[in-house]
């Protein structure tokens, strides 16, 4: 069976928020736990939410230096996609050149921003791009990375260049999600790998989660514990160091429900992806 390297994050409900944050947390966990090479792909809409990872809160009415550099940084990030598209059109795109056009975040984790113009995302700027070029781009990404997480507001037909596409469904902790799980994760397209995620659920409602799992035995469901530090770290622009610190606490045998839940989810993604993990992640040594 061919590996399923491409995973699309999507929300099942307007109240199921946190898609961009979840993409980053999953990407970090995969790179740390399995030493996998992971790529996060954002469109401009989700990239606006992503910038809060690096932007600290405004104190004493002063403008953060990150905001001053936002325009040039945003332009530089978009240049990565422009380079990839140009190389694809000229038949020169290779996995190595693809990686050189991405932005590194932590060891083994890179990101790529795809510009969009209008409601249909990249179709607006790539409507004249033959399908063979789009397939070349996605195949180069799959050759360079073990897992690609798509944090984009795109419909399924836009990703026709991907042969094996998995779905990560972010769902609210409500009983009315039973119909959604039944239709999308159980009765849906069998050729697609489907995973349901209850994001930041309340531990006091664990019986609710267990009830849903009993009702939907054919679905792959995971529940991630609520963590107040996530919201605080997002506001301060310190999400990445916060999660790395929490992961280090888990390695010291401390109980960290959020990291433990994401670790279980990462294992489920690796199992369904048929990807091979590596040992010897040394990000803590390289990044302190």
Describe the model.
The protein contains 13 helices and 8 strands. The protein starts with 5 loop residues before the first strand and ends with a helix. An 8-stranded mixed beta sheet has the order 3-4-2-5-1-6-7-8, sandwiched between helices. By secondary structure, it is an alpha/beta fold. Helix 8 (177-186) links the parallel strand 6 (165-171) and strand 7 (194-201). The chain is globular. The chain has helices spanning 19-33, 44-50, 65-68, 70-89, 95-100, 123-126, 131-144, 177-186, 206-215, 228-236, 239-251, 257-273, 283-287, and strands at residues 6-11, 38-43, 103-106, 109-114, 147-151, 165-171, 194-201, 221-225. 47% of the residues lie in helices and 16% in strands.
Brief write-up:
The chain has 288 residues and is of the alpha/beta class.
Overall mean pLDDT score? 76
Cα distance spanning the termini: 39 Å
Tell me the total number of β-strands.
Answer: 8
**Cα-based radius of gyration, to the nearest Å:** 19 Å
Q: Can you count the helices?
A: 13
- The assembly state of the depicted protein chains is single chain
Largest sheet: 8 strands, mixed
Across the major sheet, the strand order is 3-4-2-5-1-6-7-8
- The dominant shape is globular
Content-based structural category: alpha/beta
Strand content: 15-25%
Instruction: Name the helix and strand elements from N-terminus to C-terminus, one letter apiece.
Output: EHEHHHHEEHHEEHEHEHHHH
Approximate helicity band: 40-55%
The low-pLDDT segments are 57-76, 117-126, 281-288
């Amino acid at each position: 069976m061919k590996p399923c390297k491409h995973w699309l994050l999507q929300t099942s409900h307007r109240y199921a928020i946190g898609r961009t944050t979840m993409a980053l947390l999953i990407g970090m966990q995969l790179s740390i736990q399995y030493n996998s090479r992971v790529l996060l792909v954002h469109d401009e809409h989700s990239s606006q939410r992503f910038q809060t990872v690096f932007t600290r809160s405004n104190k004493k009415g002063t403008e953060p230096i990150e905001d001053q550099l936002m325009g040039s940084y945003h332009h530089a990030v978009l240049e990565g996609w422009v380079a990839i598209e140009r190389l694809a059109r000229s038949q020169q795109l290779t996995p190595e050149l693809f990686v050189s056009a991405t932005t590194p975040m932590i060891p083994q984790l890179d990101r790529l921003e795809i510009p969009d113009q209008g409601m249909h995302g990249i179709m607006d700027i790539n409507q004249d791009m033959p399908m063979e070029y789009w397939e070349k781009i996605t195949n180069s990404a799959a050759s360079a990375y073990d897992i690609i997480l798509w944090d984009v507001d795109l419909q399924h037909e836009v990703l026709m260049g991907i042969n094996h596409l998995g779905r990560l469904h972010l769902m609210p902790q409500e009983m009315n999600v039973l119909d959604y799980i039944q239709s999308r994760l159980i009765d849906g397209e069998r050729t697609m790998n489907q995973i349901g995620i209850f994001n930041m659920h309340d531990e006091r409602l664990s019986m609710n989660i267990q009830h849903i799992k009993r009702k939907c035995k054919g679905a792959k469901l995971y529940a991630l514990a609520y963590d107040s530090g996530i919201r605080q770290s997002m506001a301060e622009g310190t999400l990445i160091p916060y999660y790395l610190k929490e992961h280090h606490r888990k390695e010291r045998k401390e109980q960290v429900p959020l990291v433990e839940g994401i670790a279980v989810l990462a294992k489920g993604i690796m199992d369904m992806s048929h990807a091979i993990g590596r040992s010897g992640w040394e990000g803590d040594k390289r990044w302190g």
